Amino acid sequence: MSAEEEENAAELKIPDEFLKAKCLMNCEVSLILEHKYEQLQQMADDPMNQMSQVFEKSLQYVKRFSRYKNPDAVRQVREILSRYQLAEFELCVLGNLCPETVEEAIAMVPSIKVHSLSRLQLFMFLRGKGNEPPDFITRGRAHDDEAIEKMLNDLSLIKKFE
Questions:
Q1: What is the CA radius of gyration of the chain?
Q2: InterPro entries given for it (predicted)?
Q3: What residues contact 82, with CB distance under 8 A and at least 6 apart?
Q4: What digits encode the pLDDT tens for the residues 3-58?
Q5: Quick one: which H or E segment has residue 55?
Q6: Are the C-beta atoms of residues 70 and 162 closer than 8 Å to each other?
Q7: Which of 26, 46, 63, 153 has the most crowded Cβ, counting Cβ within 10 A?
């Protein structure tokens, strides 16, 4: 992203360091903190290993807002969302908020939707009339309503059988 371009998450115009950063869903953070909590409980005899208030509040928060509790379900959610070549933050937003409809998903993460202009750019590029491929081709991602709906259905099945 060039210095003069304005950041816009809806269009996935984000500095490279954020696009490449690893993000965790609340349910993944919950599993990590739960494991650390168990370790701290085992060493409770040692007064130096007391949990901080920040740790306790963080654990309470992610437990409260985690949509998936089962470690297998958490793994499946990441696997399903990873198939769609989403940016890390898109994956985490969808995994955390669990939209039920395509409209909700697009409202939460507008960058997952292919706009009609992008389709025109694709057509022009494939016909040899465009200068360079549209952004969504170079990112390897293009999601129409059917693909988004399939992704949401896959997620809802995990939640249903958890």
A1: 20
A2: HRDC-like_sf, RNA_pol_Rpb4/RPC9_core, Rpb4-like, Rpb4/RPC9, Rpb4/RPC9_sf
A3: 91
A4: 556 887 777 777 877 767 899 999 999 999 999 998 888 877 765 567 789 999 99
A5: helix 53-65
A6: yes
A7: 26
Alpha helix locations (H) across 66-144?
Answer: 71-82, 88-97, 102-108, 116-126, 135-138
- What sign does the CA torsion over 98, 134, 16, 12 have? negative
Q: 26 in helix, strand or coil?
A: helix
Structure tokens at 66: 């985690």
Q: pTM of this prediction? A: 0.75
Residue 62 · residue 29 · CB < 8 Å: yes
Say which residue the tokens 């939707």 belong to: 113
**Spatial contact of 154 and 77, defined as CB atoms under 8 Å apart:** no
